[in-house]
TrEMBL record:
It comes from the Bacteria. Pfam families: His_Phos_1. It comes from Paracoccus marinaquae. This is Histidine phosphatase family protein. InterPro entries: His_Pase_superF_clade-1.
Length: 182
């Protein structure tokens, strides 16, 4: 595989009223013009731009003046099944699970992190050139799992943050995680 730079931009803050919005199609708060300007400059020339079909991702791309080359269903956030729309404080307590156990847990009617990561990894494996993905926190963690495995679930991924990975041959390296405007 040729060398490739993969930038993953998490969407701007979701307008989800403090509720889990994995596959729920909510809007984004793109009102922080200074942060959008800073991120646009940080991204620079990015190669191909791929975007999740989610409204919050499309709105974020537009706020940064990005015109996605295509939307990709494989970039959707994790499907949280019956947990979708629950207030964060109403989510079930899974107790102490090791990273691999948490990654394998599948909410009823949804997908596990491992399921989502397999979907994301399949999409990323088809990229042999520089690309910018406008997507979700789960997408970022799934990409990081290419390097660190299920421990990627421990990464905090802020809204409107940038994570950068580089591929040389078959391996990936992390260049930057959770870069945000100052």
């Amino acid at each position: 595989m040729p060398m490739a730079k993969l930038m993953i931009l998490r969407h701007a803050p979701p307008l989800s009223d403090g509720r889990l919005a994995g596959r729920t199609d909510v809007a984004a708060d793109c009102s922080d013009g200074a942060a959008c300007d800073w991120m646009r400059a940080r991204i620079g020339v990015s190669g191909e731009v791929l975007c999740s079909p989610a409204r919050r991702c499309r709105q974020t791309a537009a706020a940064l003046g990005l015109a996605p080359d295509r939307t990709c269903d494989w970039l959707w956030e994790q499907d949280f099944g019956i947990w979708e729309g629950l207030a964060y404080d109403a989510l079930p307590d899974l107790g102490a699970l090791p990273p691999a156990g948490l990654a394998a847990h599948r909410p009823e009617g949804g997908e596990s992190f491992d399921d989502m990561a397999a979907r994301i990894h399949a999409g990323i494996s088809g990229l042999d050139h520089d690309a910018l993905l406008v997507a979700h926190a789960g997408t970022v963690r799934a990409a990081l799992a290419l390097v660190v495995g299920p421990a990627a679930l421990s990464f905090s991924v802020a809204p409107l943050s940038l994570t950068v990975l580089r591929r040389a041959g078959a391996g990936w390296a992390v260049e930057a995680v959770n870069v945000t405007a100052p």
